[in-house]
Amino acid sequence: MKEYKCKYCGEVFDKPLRLAQHARSRHKRAKTREKKSVEKEKQGEQINRTIEAIGILKGLQASPNLNEAEKKLLGDVSKIIEELLAYTLKSK
Ligand SMILES: [Zn+2]
Asked: How far is the CA of 62 from the centre of ligand 1 (A)?
């Protein structure tokens, strides 16, 4: 006889339909939580990269080879990114 094992808790069922019902009623929340933590991790990486990007822009802005217009442009761009980052951190 074939067995259908639950991949979350290891409980065994004789019919795939029973396993599906079990997983739906018992593990739906666990699945959502798993997905959320992956998303959170991705978001954290994204935030770190954004902070790095702001640092790069600020470094460029301090370069002596730039004219005023270029410096202003870099300043504006880093400000936009900083605002976006602040918004992202607030909505977390
Ligand atoms: Zn289970």
From this structure: 58
> What is the C-alpha separation between 45 and 51, in angstroms, rounded?
10
Q: What does the pLDDT profile of the chain (92 residues) look like in tens digits?
A: 789 999 999 999 999 999 999 998 898 877 778 888 888 899 899 999 999 999 999 999 988 889 999 999 999 999 999 999 999 888 76
Taking the centre of ligand 1 as the mean of its atom positions, its distance from the CA of residue 18, in whole angstroms, is 11
Beta carbons of 46 and 33 less than 8 angstroms apart: no
| Number of Cβ within a 10 Å radius of residue 75 | 13
- What's the CA-to-centroid distance between 2 and ligand 1, angstroms? 17
Q: How far is the CA of 30 from the centre of ligand 1 (A)?
A: 10
Number of domains in the chain: 1
pTM over 0.85: no
- Its domain, for residue 57, covers 4-90
